[in-house]
Structures are given as C-alpha cells and as structure tokens.
Amino acid sequence: MEYFIINLNFYKKELFTPENINDFCLFNHICKNNIQSMKISEVCELLSAKIICDLKQNAFDVEKGYSSDLMSDVLTLDTDNLLLITGMCNLQTIRTAEMADVRVIAFVRNKKASGEMLELAREHGICIMESPFTMFKASGILFEAGLKPVY
To answer: Shortest CA distance to 136 belongs to which of 75, 68, 63?
Structure first.
C-alpha cells in the first residue's frame, strides 16, 4: 500500500509507503512545530512560571532556547532573541546573560532570584522568570510548543 501526502509546508507531493511512513510522521511533527518566535507571556504560561523581573515582557519575542548550568557554554553562543533555561541561580548567571546578550532567563527547579540579582537584571534589561519544572521538563515543553533549539 502506498500513501501520497501533499506536504503544504514545502508545497511538494511525497510518496510514503508503510516502510517509511514513520519518516513522514517525524517530518510532519518537525514542520508542524516550526514556529518563528514565542512571546515571553507564552513561555511563562507553558512553564507555569512567575515573571519576577518584568521589563515590558511582550515588547520582544524569543526565537530559540538554550538549557545549561554551565555559564562558560552560554558565553560561546552567538544567537539573538535567546531564552536561557538554567538552574544556576546566582549573580554570575545575570552577568553572563548580559555579556552574551541574553534578554530572558528562566530559572528552573524552583530556584529564586535574590534582590541583588533582580537589581542587576533590571539594570541590564533582562527579564527573569521562575519555574517549578526541572530543566528537562521545561526544555521538552518549549520544544514541543515549537521553540527552536540553538543547535
């Protein structure tokens, strides 16, 4: 048995057989979730997060997400409109975000930003949110919702 599927994302007709139908399902899932950007309020809702340092949260969108507790890895990134998902909750995280031009940080695992961290984030125009989810769960939810990974 053969299936003809017209993929509207790329305007082409493809032939799929029972042997490669799984390839189509994966391909279609990836295409379906290929969005351009996500509002900060959407991220907050998906992660059941509270925005702690609100700097015009809907004034900009995030296009990609990156999860790491290693701030040295964050410094190697050259990506605009990035959401940093981390459990590393200290002043160094805010300083790293400022150097890497990260405008949004989601602290996971119920980590709480200190007053000093919030003050520094406000100075540099960084939006901070706190989520109860693990880094793995937060990353998975955002990926499933269509947020692209850095690589």
So the answer is: 68
Confidence of residue 33 (pLDDT cuts 50, 70, 90): very low
Distances (CA, A) of 45 to 51, 80, 106: 10, 22, 12
Kindly tell me the sign of the dihedral angle through the C-alpha atoms of 79, 84, 85, 86. Answer: positive
pLDDT in tens, 118-131: 999 999 999 999 99
Co-location of 21 and 47 in the same domain = no
* Model confidence, pTM: 0.76
Asked if 127 and 55 count as a contact pair (C-beta separation under 8 A), the reply is yes
- State which amino acid sits at residue 19: E
Residues 26 and 64 in one domain: no
List strands edge to edge, sheet with 127-130.
50-53, 127-130, 104-107, 82-86, 64-67, 148-149
